[in-house]
Amino acid sequence: MFDHSAEFGTGPAFNLDAPPQTREEFRARAAQWKANLRRTVQIRNASELVPHLPAPGESIHALMMGNYDFMLVLSSILRAQDQPCLHLRLSTLAFNKKNVSELGRLFDEGIIQRITLLCADYMDRMNSDIFRCAVEEIAEKRQQTVATARTHAKVSLLEYPNAYYAIEGSANLRTNKNIEQVTVIHDRSVHDWFEEWIDWEAEHG
What we know:
The chain has six helices and seven strands, in the order H-E-H-E-H-E-H-H-E-E-E-E-H. The chain has a seven-stranded mixed sheet with strand order 1-7-6-5-2-3-4. By secondary structure, the chain is α/β, with parallel strands linked by helices. 41% of the residues lie in helices and 21% in strands.
């Protein structure tokens, strides 16, 4: 199992050896402390959504209640395994820069060895700064695959040496306030069916 000590980029906001010197500094550090606390709760909730992966031929069904993003769920699943994911394939309508940063951390830490990120062409047209961030961080810096297509599908594929998982649901990678459904399937035929489609779109999109 991988070390979680620095996962998701969280950290303490207050250093008792160096207390804030001004009211503005206190307010800024208090706001950061609240943000870190909120993030800690989000990470805990995300990790509890899928506490373990299903056995071969089985599936797990769950509901996200809108207070954390699906990328945190994926990170929790990936970090809980005792071996790296050989290839993480993602299809999503939309994502944000925090999602891109987390994908980069997972790759840099060796938790995933390959990334294919397929998103809707909407991202390139309507959120070009975020899409460009993904291209720079995932494709250019780490030599992984980022592509667009006319897609609204939300699918994540986790390929391990002896296990293949497909995660289907309604959630994008980024946070929203809606209830979302998630289904985790341990079945190679389902994984490979989606793999063929995602790889084709990534090559031809």
